[in-house]
Protein 1
Amino acid sequence: MNNIFSIHTVRFFLLILAQVILFNHINFLGYVNPYLYILFIAFFPVKNNRIIIILLSFLLGLTIDLFSDTGGIHAAASVFIAYIRPVILKSSFGTIYEHQTIKFSSAEFGAKLTYFTLLTVLHHIILFSLEIFSISKIILILQKTLFSSIFTILLSITITIIFSRKTK
């Protein structure tokens, strides 16, 4: 239990550090900006208390907001995907989620891709809607959501493949 706690603590701080130092400075064509800190929410253990993931997601988003000077939009988007995560897990993994036996390293690629895609797109829609906050700029919101989601998903899958443990 202590080992798992330390792994998630290290992941929490490493993702914040990577987001603040590296990924916040990528802004390709004004639309593409990856938000890889949501990997913490995606990989948080399913069996843990739901209140814990919502609280940690708030702290994660708030920390990103403090470093980015964005006024709480990352915290709101993070809390939203943490809250809706059980629905996304059930729709992506089906009965594996119901039996609480999800292992991301051994899950099939299609289920992982669906899971990452749903989490990322929902996060980005909330994030960019709050950032722009204008219904007249819905096209801009959708463009930023689409392009940033594609880039975030590609980087998330790549990082997941690189850092996943091989099981035999």
Protein 2
Amino acid sequence: MSGVDVTVVVGTCAHERTDYAVRLAAATRRALFPSRRLATTTDPIGTAVSLLPWAQSSGAIVELPTTAPLDDFVTTAAHPSSACGVSSIICVADAMHLIDDLRSDTYAVTKLVPSDDPPGSMSREHTAVALFTARQLEGASTVVLVNWQGLATPNLTSLVALVSHLNPTAEVMLDADPLREPSGVPRDVDPARITAGWAALLQGRHRPPHTDRRIGALHYAQLRPFHPTRLRSLLDDRLDPREFGTVIRSAGFCRIATRASVLARWDHVGQVCSIEPTATPHAPETAVRLAATGQDLAFFGIDLRADALRIALDEAALTDAELTDGPLAWAAYADPFPAWKPAARPR
């Protein structure tokens, strides 16, 4: 690493995030680039990176605004032209409200995108705040829990285990006193070594350092595509009402029979689920071959009924008879999911 040593502070609880960043900057004698300053610009990530060369030699604390994508900052900072290097990524989470934050159905405006209604206008793109919460937890080298003192010990133990499942590579710390300097020193880490829990589970190397009997995980693999109507029914009528326990996070890759030529990215947190294409469609005649790389999904939850969830997912996949019918028959199925915008072809 060369240039300015940067510690990134993220979190969707703005007050707690800012309080921690201020205390950390004072304790480490580093320059602070606060979110209130970065959020006033149209490009907070670019602004932060451009300002970092002016930081003192002791390094800098960058507090990213809630909706600034953490991975975009890390990628920009790692560019050879950048004068900084990220040594630690701290996610500050309010322990009293973290489960509610992960189950929130509120959305935030993330950017303006061109629109054809009317032509030449701009429309607002919204992203679920719960997705930011999950991705920040998953992308951190250290997760700092604040306001944890009001939790009963069993609940705190379960919460630490849940965070550890969502990011098994992160150190989980309890911030002891909000009126003093932060507890402990967040560890330095290569951002490339941080692995989200769902990715680790799909790769067969999910080993969270903290566990609890109430926190469970399921790796679901299935060669057959999902039947769109049955999948939508499962998500709306069974998964969301907590039939299988409280499913906090699920992510991975899937195929829907009516769109079997496209591998989709499954991204679900709490009450919000996004299934979007990862690549351009292939010719229909290749759909059967591609469908053989079907579902590869990771689920994490509280009091998770993994066996029942696995059975329900199997029931949402194509039956023997449906699979034999082939992609032309699949294309005629009712499909309740939103239409996909064409994905950009890789260069």
